[in-house]
Design goal:
This protein has 165 residues and is an alpha+beta fold. The chain is 24% helix and 38% strand. The chain is built from 4 helices and 9 strands. The chain has a 6-stranded antiparallel β-sheet with strand order 1-2-5-6-7-4. The termini are far apart.
């Protein structure tokens, strides 16, 4: 099997290559919840075959960036224009161990959306049970000189679609 080019990575993941895939929309508590699937590989686990705590952020970020990419927002172009979208707060609560080859669902929603940033809430499910949940607060910044700025409409629009169900 030939590996896809970088620009096609998300579509390849959706097609089932690399173990992740887009599963669609659902509604809960007034917000749209995006659901993505991922099967844990060697890259996700430590020597004991248990998911490494840093990988949870990777899965959430991958799902979130894939959602934006599908809607025409490219983080690379955003950064080339002098913007950034750093984490200003990150929390995760772990409830169940995840191990090699477990299949998980990553559920995302956006809350606290304003002109300069948002909170990305996530829940990671294993076999219908909550394995972890957390929040990531992100702010739009100008890279030089670094300062908080208003998010461009191209970013705010797909975020609003998740936040306003």
């Amino acid at each position: 099997m030939q590996l896809p080019k970088i620009g096609r990575l998300w579509k390849a993941k959706r097609a089932g290559l690399f173990g992740s895939g887009y599963a669609g929309f659902g509604l809960t508590q007034g917000n749209t919840v995006l659901t993505f699937r991922h099967r844990l590989t060697w890259m996700d686990v430590d020597y004991a075959r248990v998911a490494h705590y840093l990988r949870y952020n990777v899965w959430v970020d991958d799902a979130f960036h894939g959602y934006l990419f599908e809607r025409g927002f490219h983080i690379k172009e955003f950064m080339e224009q002098g913007y950034g979208l750093p984490y200003v707060s990150n929390s995760c609560r772990y409830f169940r161990a995840l191990t090699l080859e477990d299949e998980v669902e990553i559920q995302l929603t956006v809350t606290d959306l304003d002109e300069n940033g948002f909170t990305l809430r996530y829940r990671i499910m294993k076999a219908g049970a909550v394995a972890a949940e957390g929040d990531v607060v992100r702010r739009c910044v100008q890279q030089a000189p670094p300062r908080s700025v208003e998010m461009p409409q191209a970013l705010r629009q797909p975020l609003r679609a998740i936040a306003e169900a």
